[in-house]
What we know:
Distance between the termini: 53 Å
Strand content: under 5%
Oligomer: single chain
Helix content: 55-70%
Amino acid sequence: MNTAFIINELQAVGTPEKAAHLQRFFKTGPGQYGEGDVFIGVVVPHTRSIAKAALQTPLTEIRKLLLSEYHEARLCGLLILVERFKKASAPAEREEIYGFYLKNISRVNNWDLVDLTCPAIVGGYLVDKSRSILYRLAESDSLWEQRISIISTLAFIRRDDFFDTLELSRKLLNHRHDLMHKAVGWMLREMGKRDRSVLTAFLEEYAAGMPRTALRYAIEHYPEPERQYFLKKR
């Protein structure tokens, strides 16, 4: 499929009402984190379906999708990459997709685009490789690249590998933006689901200085007495 066909498919299932809602939900107003983003009004399941039907789309066309002003076009292009990465049997193909993702990382520019794609592609590729790129992304001036750095560790958490989640959480714990507080808290929570003792040890050391949002996310699955214990540390 080519870019024009995919965008037409998205426009066929989008609605102005949903677009207006998404414009507000993703904070697209002046000075907000999603300033200037444009929505067609397509729900994610429809975008996924269109992506799955377009897996043979060449990278040159996916690049055009990523350059689109439409949020859902960028998401569709990224979801095609995710599905291709998951199905790839050759290491060279996974490397190509990973490299393409990083080359176009500036177009992964809202939190849903990050969260729905980087664990599979970036995290999935780095599972058995050096994770130094994540620390470079954590030092970026881009909020989205910083979010990619921590959310990519979800792939490691699912393999009971917590080192980089902990290190990047320490690095990003007191980030200025609430979206990063949520991201760090989310990854800590997911780690805690796998090993509560590791999370508890982290919280004993850092809870007193953590942003409240990050802490609340991290302790979401603790029993109420333990939740209150950590909340009172602040």
